[in-house]
Amino acid sequence: MSEQMSRIDWPAGYDRTDPEDREPYDGDLSPTRKESFKSIVDELERWGATSIDIETASDHYVDRPNIPHQHDKPDDVGVVVRFRHEDEAADEPLAYACDHWETQRENARAIALYVRRMRLAEKCQIATGQSTAATARLPGGDEDDDVIVAGTSEPELDVERAAELLGVAPDAPDRVVETAFQEAIKDGHPDQGGDASMSRLKEAREVLTDAG
After folding, report:
1. Residues 114 and 201 occupy one common structural domain
2. Reduced to 3 states, what is the DSSP secondary structure of residue 136?
3. 129 and 163 housed in the same domain
């Protein structure tokens, strides 16, 4: 293990990816590295997380401890996020970790997208053997893959699908999304010959307002 790799306190029991097996992330990489790390914190805070601590092999800014230095390019591109969640016991910190992709930005982006999906899935109130937050391992996957929520037969909406459903731009302001939602309710009502379910329209509105 290199000196840089040893700087990360990788969670016990979490496998590491061999550097030769890392892959380029083929999802949306429009956010910068700084934005990717910031989005992890934003998504976790929306989910009710506290004591958020992001660790990498890079030096982090003193005034922004969860953001690695912009020009630091360590050999170990892994990202570990530790936090506590309002639904978990106070003495049980949780962790997500990812080093499957080739760069820090890609791994941070993957974690942020994963947390967002978990947060939205939890709102569906599906009964499971443990809380959604207690899934301690970040699985491999691509943000463009369809995620099937338990109890449904439809893939989870992403921003592009939600925008298409409501007929707005992906970056439409909240007021435009709300207007489109109200119109879609009328158009989608069975009496009007529509076929979009109320729950699907509400999900689309939530996805777009969360993304804004």
Report:
1. no
2. coil
3. no
Percentage of the residues of the chain whose pLDDT score is greater than 70 = 71
- Give pLDDT tens digits for 36-78: 999 999 999 988 899 999 999 999 999 999 999 988 888 899 9
Q: For 140-169, what is each residue's pLDDT tens digit?
A: 334 444 433 333 345 567 888 888 888 888
The set of residues, in sequence order, having a beta carbon less than 8 Å from that of 10 and lying 6+ positions away, is: 16, 78, 80, 97
Range of the domain at 37: 3-134
**Residue 51, H or E segment:** strand 49-55
Alpha carbon 144 to chain centroid, angstroms: 12
Task: Round to the nearest angstrom and report the end-to-end CA distance of the chain.
Answer: 41
Strand partners, 81: 54, 96
Q: 139-172 burial string, b = 16+ CB within 10 Å, else e?
A: eeeebeeeeebeeeeeebbbbebbbebbebeeeb
* Cβ contacts of 39 within 8 Å, gap of 6 or more: 31, 108, 109, 112
